[in-house]
Amino acid sequence: MNQSSSQKALRDTQAERRESGLTINKARKVFTSAEGTQVRAVDDVSLAIPQGEFFILLGPSGCGKTTLLRSIAGLETLDAGEIYLGDTRIDGLAPYRRPVNTVFQSYALFPHMTIAQNIAFGLQMEKQSKATIAKTVGDMLDLVHLSEIGGRKPNQLSGGQQQRVALARALAKSPQVLLLDESLSALDFKLRRQMQVELKRIQRETGITFVFVTHDQEEALSMGDHIAVFSEGKPKQIGTPQEIYDTPANRFVADFIGDINFLDATKVNGNCVEVQGVTFPVSQDVTNRSDGAALCVAVRPERIGLTSADSDGLLGTITALTFMGADIRCEVTLRDHTALQVRVSPPFDTNVLRPGGTVSIAIHADHMRVVEQ
Ligand code: ADP
Ligand code: MG
Questions:
Q1: Cβ–Cβ under 8 Å, residues 144 and 165
Q2: pLDDT in tens, 285-304
């Protein structure tokens, strides 16, 4: 069977079951640690994951990503809350009754079986017919581009190939949702990049909802249709990669994603803030803040312009300057000793970009982002 007909076959089996997405409603999971303290691993989480999306759960180690994923799979029992697939409540179902499958970081392939047998195993357990199993295994090998080597054993495969087998095995049962827990983190950098592209392709071609857990913000930005950024058991923001990057809702998200500067500011008349006596207009609506309120403004290093010193502007001194090829990284120290990280793109104005030089800070209103603390 050729590639496109195998994709279509997979899509058809999925189509009737994928009417709507995964809904998590006020899910809570509390663990008691060895010391007896309670940890809210999943802290009243509500999420709507649209069907057919590549959805990312992103956050630092210990923020509850794995616990939430295991709760969706049925490997943890929630203390409170509900999980729905479409209109069907699934959180009371045994794991094997849920149309959900998981790819773990360790591939856990059977070493004594061939690749094809590994993929077939789950289908045999379901007592599917030999003909159906053979067809599915062929389709899956096509999908992950391993048709040529279905007869090999796992120890004859590279790490990336083993990862593909694990993926093929998980997809063979046509789950409605595929859960992936840090499943690329065992791969080296280059292979990881390749597998990111492959995973995106496979998700697109199958149309299956992928819920992908990572602590790597670059991986999240490059792969997600939407990202939920977690901290301490709660999503702190849910949005597209661009929304999360350009308009972080709070200081945690701003700090966790990419490089960022924080400026202490004061709300002043109109939709403006004042930083060290200099007024900056802000595009974001901040009229709900009272004048005089202390605010935190987040600004990306590439969104700060440096111009020759203007006595009306916010002035700083260039305290470090590193040429990086595609850009110049500067540290600019303000009068109050705040050190700003600035990334300047070419063309470079060498009259302005001098170590020890005084510069004016220019920030467009669109890029002054007032964030919740
Ligand atoms: P992540 O996957 O984001 O690193 P986890 O979901 O593994 O986070 O863990 C979330 C929190 O719950 C952590 O504080 C962790 O120590 C705790 N935790 C997870 N599993 C258990 C368990 N079985 N018993 C006790 N505490 C646990
Ligand atoms: Mg984890």
A1: yes
A2: 999 999 999 999 999 999 99
